[in-house]
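Support case: nicotinamide-adenine-dinucleotide complex. Customer-provided input:
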Amino acid sequence: MANVRICMIGAGRVGKLHSGTLRRHVPGGELVALVDPFQKVLDETGDQFEIDRRFSSLEQALEAVDFDAVVITTPTPTHRDLAVLAAEQGKHVFLEKPMALTLAECDDIMSATARHGVILQMGFMRRFDPDFAAAWERIQAGEIGEVMIIKSLTHGPGLPPPWATDLKTSNGNLAEVNSHDLDTARWLSASTPLRMYVEVANFKGAERGVTSDHYYDNMFATVKFESGAMASISGVCPCDYGYDSRVEIVGKKGIMQIGELKGESIVVGIDRDQGLVTPIFRRWPDRFRWGYIRELEHFVDCVHAERRPIVTGEDGRWAVAMVLAGTRSFLEERPVYLQEVITSNG
Ligand SMILES: NC(=O)c1ccc[n+]([C@@H]2O[C@H](COP(=O)([O-])OP(=O)(O)OC[C@H]3O[C@@H](n4cnc5c(N)ncnc54)[C@H](O)[C@@H]3O)[C@@H](O)[C@H]2O)c1
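Agent response - structure generated as follows:
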């Protein structure tokens, strides 16, 4: 079977992560080009992962290199144009979360990929994490009964890049950090979100020099689903102490927990005053190592088999709708029905 030839768009944090994953762990996915307008990063990532064909725009890469698919790892405001252009050129699209800034942009991406018959997979890697995937299967099999309550948290260690601390270019931490919780709560509850109420707070922004309007580093959301299930989702970023992602699901028959604070099953004892020391996950690539590998394996498999991925544009669009409802909720200090943003965000 021929390799799936991939053009990586974006050479920043996630561009590096996915380039390394493709190089080391996904032999069927061949990295043939790299695009980034920022020359220093383009060269750094190109050198690190031995990608010789380097371009400052997708247009240039399309002119010069033959490839089958793109992996888009650029800031959110660029997602729509890049994904639509790639689809129009018949390239399959792996797109990082959040899908886009608005629902209209999501619709453009979905219709372009559908019209040109190419695959669209969203970068919700938690769905491929062995623990999350096992939990979903066991819930589906009825082990804990009907889902009643989900408590999900994501705490990230440091500030994201500057574009991601500005609501106008990122939709804030609800999108940047908690998109994953919004997606998994919808997935694990197997229900449609109905209403959201969100509170936010800013504890560390000033001391870290973040001055953008409505910036928040703490977020607490309550989500009501059509099934009657409820979710609480919290986000802290920067939390400084490490990367922390945990979920608790209460069903009619039992309870399930995913993840723990401990990063590795090592305990070290050196000093009786300090007690036992055990590592914590340092960064998201450590916690979700397998999720990042399996999601790209899945993408390559889907391209080979011309199969619909398990995480689609629909899922990306729902997460964006939840981000928009949540943002409106804290700005207007009231619960917001999903229907309000779905009908008005055109
Ligand atoms: N799945 C995850 O766990 C995860 C984690 C972090 C970030 N993300 C997402 O990945 C995306 C990128 O985030 P990041 O942290 O890597 O950002 P980043 O700022 O580190 O990197 C983005 C790169 O894209 C480049 N770029 C900008 N416009 C471009 C264009 N038109 N064409 C090509 N390159 C362009 C920038 O120069 C930069 O090098 C965002 O959507 C973010 O939300 C996902």
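The chain has a mean pLDDT of 97.

Case will auto-close in a few days if no follow-up is received.
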